[in-house]
Write a structure and sequence with these properties.
The complex is a heterodimer. By secondary structure, chain A is mostly helical. Chain A has one domain. Chain A has 23 helices and 6 strands. Classes of the chains: A mainly alpha, B mainly alpha.
Chain lengths: 556, 538
């Protein structure tokens, strides 16, 4: 039973844990939450068996074209006969898999990081905290495996609620402002996504009507499935030739504008806010600064990845010509995010804010890599997401460790911490160097791949600007090195300070969280193929092939 | 049709009428009997609800119904309204369990029942005069309810304000209806386009000026009931003055009646709206959503905020209302009406739930009103605040609540025209305006949630508004979550009902074009039920 519905089990296991927390005695709640997230993680690791063969036999694992899914679960959820069909449709491929596993790992570690809940400034409501935490995990996991647009949207939105309360109730001084800002920004983006959701449903219906009212499925070709009305199936929308040619046709317009570019933008805005990229990034520093440490870890480690995942799952495969049309604008936004995030990080005196702005900069690479639509760009963006998903929770936890002891985050008031806390200093150096992109650590591969991909795109006659962008993006690494090295000097190096002398080094619980992250940072830097690329590249390459076949040049 | 059959078919209405009279008598009989009035009224509402479910000799839920009396046409819409209005009424009585504070409970409860009776009759009315009376039967008790709900001057002020404006709107409505009568010579709504003795349609070349004036005036009169711009100015003041349970009632019953009447107006003209009227309604809808949401942002009191949210919801419903007639042009696709019937039923409960929470949270011995009043309430009344949060997120249109589905259906209706249709652009623009507004609205809805969960608790607050409001709140919040997961039956029901009001005139037109229209004037029920069944999805 578990093996046939494994995705459902993984997605809803945290929620079941949450239900148990609802009735469990107060003292056991932490244990139950940690066990639930641990079980979720272990269960998700079993999925590796599906994808391990990816390097030797890519066709077997990733299929011959985009749309090969594993562990598929389909059931009709809401149906109005002849009109509307919303499915409970879960499935996993090389795009969702690494992010899915990343989510379970980061959630487990963040749950452990919540173990000292009683010592927090706001330490009331332990039951509510862990229930919301587990619901959040369910929401995040759902996003990465839902392949019905409606279901995806529900998970996407529902996930906001626990996050809103987690920041708003257990946050810092300006928690209310930060929580509402986070909520409104994300919601603002997702209303346009809702418009796109409805429009794509009705336009795909129109495409099928035009083709005679019944069209064979694009990727389930062997099964004889036929479409008779609009669909929310994300894979179908991307692979069905009838729908695709209607979507990208020049004569298909939405409010007088070509359909593909406008829909691409409607979807893009929602994901760009989540990513986040300049100029819609302003919620991120606020949310991070106010959120408690474990929530910051989740926010940086998983939530930001949803933006990038959304680009790769929705925007590009479904509207490749939209991606082509907006390539320059998007790449430019990515580049500006890299630079602006870097400069802002350089200017921060708050430890946590610095890490938050470094996230903006790192996510800029993701957008740049995707926007140029090359193999290396896509692969690099994906790698960068996973790498950042490991290194940034680590950095946020490192900040949390010192905040628990010093109760402030002023970078300039620290100094010489390596001498006081040698184990902490060593791990912090690994974490921040990984974020910096030091060769041999995880941050390096992603950035290099993205720069390579951007350079590759320069040979495309439509993207002559890509060379210049590649050069600037590569040069921006200096900026990253600047703020990270300066940070390390101010906080960890220098003479030992009197006020921090009594600080205990990292406890065994803290080591238990930091060491796996540090190991992953190193492993991903040395074995990029075995840790990430082998699992993702198959799907990404097939997606690119499909997109290149489907691109129709659109002029607005 | 003999008298007993008639009584059976109309049993929910009759029980409501008799019950209202009994409750009134219990109330005025004095002394401790005053307390008895509330449970009696509750039982009356439940009894009528049970009759609506079980005593359905004509199976009005499954066919296009029958005209059992001249001017009363029972159909699937009637059943839908009976079920929603009566269950709403029962919950509203629960909210008012300890209301009003003065000893006028009998009168107050009787007024609730009378107003519900008016709503039920509005749903079945097939005659302009019956419709007018039904709407007034909805409105007049509400004036009294506001005045009775509190003993302070503010309640009297808002009752007077509401009464005068209401009387004015009734006059405008009656004036408009007289034009509609003048244009056709009949007061029967379904005979507006096709009379029984003629063999061709009236107004084949478009509506005459008389009818246009009539429709505009009727719309103006009804715009007051549904709180649409520019007849919305009273809403915040009246809501603030009345006690919370009454406010929750006011947000739903008159609005529902108004929309039912508007649906009937569109039905009478065969769902073909002249372009000028389309643009008038388009502007009204856009202005209503925008005004409601933008002004909602500026409010300091939770009640006033919810008042503007009520205006905004009227705007969303107007978007759906516009889709109905357009669909009539484009083919048989009653998605708009469908969405209205689904959404307004949901809206009634989520709105009432919010006011039930305000009733349950007492500050200084009165209902909570401002954001300061409810600040930090989650610490003291976690259950009430959870219910409030569910209702508020549903009002926001956020999953996993039924409000999200409502929003989605409205949006879906607006998009349901095929790309390329002349009205596709305007409708999609309107939908986008509505959607952007729903994001603006989130800002003020979140303030309510933030106040109860993130605010610092005040000492004045006590969650002792009685158990009635708490049960009512549970009765409003739980369905919001359940309907989200299992919406199929309700959507099918609203779809079927929408199909009924769309089928009549379309079918009449189709029959006419085949020139084989044989009116059977001796038995109206036959004319209305014949052959329409196949147009309705089972």
């Amino acid at each position: 039973m578990i093996s046939s519905h494994i995705l459902s089990w993984i997605v809803f296991l945290p929620a079941i844990g949450g239900l148990i927390c609802l009735v469990a005695p107060k003292k056991q709640i932490k244990t139950i939450a940690v066990l639930a997230s641990l079980a979720t993680m272990l269960l998700s690791l079993t999925l590796f068996s599906t994808f391990l063969g990816g390097a030797d036999d890519p066709t077997e694992v990733f299929g011959q074209s985009y749309g090969k899914l594993h562990h598929v679960e389909r059931a009709t959820w809401i149906e109005l006969p002849g009109e509307l069909k919303i499915e409970y449709f879960l499935g996993i491929d090389g795009l969702g898999f690494p992010l899915f596993v990343l989510t379970t790992v980061v959630s487990f570690l963040a749950c452990l990081a919540s173990w000292n809940f009683e010592t927090w400034k706001v330490n009331k409501g332990i039951r509510a905290y862990f229930i919301l935490f587990l619901l959040l995990e369910t929401g995040m996991l759902g996003v990465f495996v839902s392949l019905d647009f409606f279901l995806f949207y529900i998970f996407w939105e529902v996930m906001l609620l626990p996050m809103y309360f987690l920041i708003g109730v257990w946050g810092g001084a300006r928690k209310e402002y930060a929580a509402i800002k986070f909520f409104l920004f994300t919601l603002g983006g997702s209303v346009l996504m809702l418009v796109a959701l409805v429009a794509m449903y009705f336009y795909s219906g129109a495409a099928i009507d035009q083709a005679g009212g019944s069209v064979a499925s694009g990727y389930l070709s062997g099964s004889g499935t036929a479409l008779t009305h609009g669909t929310f199936d994300l894979i179908e929308l991307a692979t069905n030739p009838t729908i695709q040619s209607y979507f990208s046709a020049v004569s298909t317009t939405f409010l007088g504008i070509k359909f593909a570019p406008i829909m691409f933008i409607f979807l893009f805005v929602g994901f760009a806010i989540k990513l986040p990229c300049v100029p819609v990034h302003t919620w991120l520093p606020d949310a991070h600064v106010e959120a408690p440490t474990p929530i910051s870890m989740i926010l940086a480690g998983v939530l930001l990845k949803m933006g990038g995942y959304g680009f790769l799952r929705l925007c590009y495969p479904i509207f490749p010509s939209g991606g082509q049309y907006w390539a320059f604008t998007l790449a430019m936004i990515g580049l500006v995010s890299i630079l602006y995030g870097g400069f802002c990080a350089l200017a921060q005196s708050d430890f946590k804010k610095l890490v938050a702005y470094s996230s903006v900069s790192h996510m800029g690479y993701v957008l740049l890599g995707i926007a140029v639509m090359t193999t290396a760009g896509f692969q690099g963006a994906m790698f960068q997401m996973i790498a950042h998903g490991i290194s940034s929770p680590m950095c946020f936890f490192l900040v949390g460790v010192i905040y628990d002891r010093a109760h402030h985050r002023e970078i300039n008031r620290f100094g010489g911490l390596w001498l006081t806390m040698p184990k902490y200093g060593t791990l912090a150096t690994i974490g921040f160097f990984a974020s910096l992109g030091l060769p041999g650590l995880c941050g390096f591969i992603g950035e290099v791949w993205v720069v390579l991909g951007t350079f590759q795109a320069g040979s495309n006659p439509e993207m002559p600007w890509a060379y210049a962008m590649a050069v600037i993006a590569a040069a921006a690494v200096i900026l990253t090195a600047g703020y990270i090295l300066w940070l390390i000097r101010r906080v960890y190096l220098g003479t030992e300070r009197e006020e921090y002398k009594g600080f205990s080094d990292t406890s065994s619980r803290e080591m238990f969280i930091l060491v796996p992250l540090a190991v992953l940072c190193i492993a991903m830097g040395i074995f990029p193929m075995q840790t990430v690329f082998n699992f993702t590249n198959g799907t990404l390459d097939l997606m690119l092939t499909m997109m290149n076949n489907g691109i129709v040049s659109v002029a607005m | 049709m003999n008298l007993s059959e008639l009584a059976f078919a109309l049993s929910p209405e009759l029980v409501l009428l008799a019950g209202a009279c009994i409750v009134l008598m219990v109330g005025v009989s004095g002394g401790a009997n005053d307390r008895l009035a509330v449970p009696t009224a509750f039982l009356v509402a439940l009894g009528a609800l049970a009759l609506a479910v079980f005593a359905d000799p004509d199976q009005i839920g499954t066919v296009s119904g029958r005209e059992i009396l001249p001017g009363l046409w029972l159909n699937s819409v009637t059943l839908l309204v009976r079920l929603t209005a009566l269950s709403f009424g029962a919950v509203a009585i629960l909210v008012s369990w300890n209301q009003p504070v003065a000893r006028e409970r009998g009168e107050y409860m009787a007024m609730i029942l009378f107003s519900l009776l008016g709503l039920l009759l509005t749903a079945s009315a097939n005659d302009w005069v019956v419709l007018f009376f039904a709407i007034e039967l909805v409105s007049i008790p509400t004036y009294i309810m506001i005045a009775l709900s509190r003993t302070d001057a503010r309640a009297s002020e808002s009752a007077v304000k509401y009464f005068f404006l209401g009387a004015l709107s009734a006059a405008i409505l009656a004036y408009g209806l007289s034009f509609l009568y003048g244009a056709t010579g009949t007061t029967t709504i379904t005979l507006f386009l096709v009379s029984e003795t003629e063999t061709s349609m009236r107004f084949a070349s478009g509506l005459p000026t008389t009818a246009m004036i009539g429709i505009v005036l009727v719309f103006a009169g009804l715009a007051f009931k549904i709180a649409a711009v520019p007849f919305h100015a009273y809403v915040a003041d009246v809501y603030e003055g009345a006690a919370s349970p009454v406010t929750g009632f006011l947000g739903f019953v008159p609005k529902f009646a108004g929309f039912l009447a508007l649906i009937k107006v569109f039905m009478s003209i065969g769902w073909e709206l002249p372009t000028s009227l389309f643009w008038m309604l388009w502007i009204v809808a856009a202005a209503t959503v925008t005004t409601g949401n933008v002004l909602g942002l500026l409010q300091r009191s939770v009640k006033r905020t919810l008042a503007y949210s009520s205006i905004a919801h009227t705007g969303y419903l107007l978007v759906a209302l516009l889709v109905g007639p357009l669909a009539g042009n484009a083919g048989f696709m009653p998605r708009g009406t469908d969405a209205i019937l689904f959404y307004i039923a949901i809206y009634g409960f989520m709105n009432l739930g919010a006011f039930a929470a305000l009733t349950a949270l007492q500050t200084d011995g009165r209902d909570a009103e401002t954001f300061e009043d409810i600040s930090g309430a989650a610490r003291r009344a976690p259950g009430v605040c959870l219910g409030l949060a569910v209702c508020v997120f549903s009002l926001m249109g956020f999953p996993p609540t039924a409000g999200f589905l409502g929003k989605l259906f409205v949006l879906g209706g607006a998009f349901s025209l095929r790309p390329g249709d002349a009205m596709h652009g305007p409708m999609v623009t309107l939908a986008i305006i509505a959607v952007i507004n729903s994001a603006i609205a989130a800002a003020y809805y979140l303030r309510i949630v933030a106040a109860v969960y993130f605010g610092t608790p005040t000492t004045k607050l006590s969650p002792d508004g009685g158990n009635g409001p708490k049960w009512a709140l549970a009765g409003c919040a739980l369905p919001m979550l359940l309907i989200f997961v299992f919406p199929a039956e309700i959507t099918k029901f609203s779809k079927r009902s929408a199909a009924v009001v769309h089928s009549i005139t379309l079918d009449a037109k189709k029959t006419l074009s085949r020139s084989s229209y044989k009116p059977n004037s001796s038995d109206k029920s036959v004319r209305l039920t014949a052959d329409h069944v196949d147009h309705i999805d089972p």
